[in-house]
Amino acid sequence: MLQPLRTPGRRLSLLFVSGLSFFAASPSGAPVPVFEQGGAMSVEQVMAMPKIDAHAHLGALRPEQLRAFVAFLERTNFRWLTICTGGMSGSRLQQQIASAQEIHRAYPSRVAWATSFSLENWGQADWARAANATIDDGFAQGAVAVKVWKDVGMVLQDPDGRYVMIDDPRMDDVLGPLEKRGRPLVAHLGEPRNCWLPLDQMTTASDRRYFANHPQYHGLLQPQIPDYARQIAARDTMLERHPSLKVIGCHLASLEYDVDEVARRLDKHPNLAVDLAARIVHLQIQPREKVRAFILKYQDRILYGTDLQFGGGAGQAAGSDPAPALARMLAEYESDAAWLATDQDVPVERAREGFASKGLSLPAEALRKIYYENARRWYPGL
Ligand SMILES: [Zn+2]
Q: What's the whole-model pTM score?
């Protein structure tokens, strides 16, 4: 069992009140506004406390690779939520599900999993029945959520060529039962706004590199695919149609370019939370105080996640040594911890060469929520 860490103290001994605490006691006893707190944890302390990576992807692993990976989770005190994203291929989804189930069964305290449903037989009479059967079976095998991927909105088409969006009433056959049962949907819908901008207007070097190398995914070059505004609008409509459905919007709900946009959706849809997976760079390039205030205000609805992948292909071909991949993952975890917990200047090559972002120095209570408690609340059973 993972145990919550006691409040660590470095500069101040902070006494946190329950819930959304806006004040903490300074050593003199005078209240310190939460916006002035900070520096409560070091990178080492963050790495030692129980954490959940609420958005990651495990591939197929040989037994010795799996053992090395689990030892890494033990060492870094992480639990992984590995998310299946079968989407258009039913057989690929079944492989992912089988692998996730097996690893979860072997290491339930370190690896949790989210299932998904196939779109391969979309439009056929038994689509919804088959999708719900896969989902039910997943829950019976310990899955904590259902993933819907961006192929809804960007790939899946009806026979007439129209793209199927997440607010399509036919999707209610899957979303309705989840809502009724109080099971969460983990939703990667749309892409970063950069996807629809020319390369030279993209805000991060990493997006520029990715879309330069993958023009087939560059929305600007694929005008037949519904654009950014359509993707976001469909998702927002879905949130409205299912006000009790818990939705964890992956990748800052694809509103990564401006925390004010995320805040607007969080205000409007109490059923929405967001994960940080692969989008911390977009926070690191926004004004620090604005981002810090956003995170403090919504500290109960932000989940730490990375989108890290381990196993099954890239960098993990048969016979390969897992050590370099684990070292890269550790470096990423430590860099994120330095940025969230300390006020160090953290190098962010993904933004642009030579760029550094000053850490947010978040209070310990907010860190514990973002790294651990929120994931447990938004994904019951995790
Ligand atoms: Zn992902």
A: 0.89
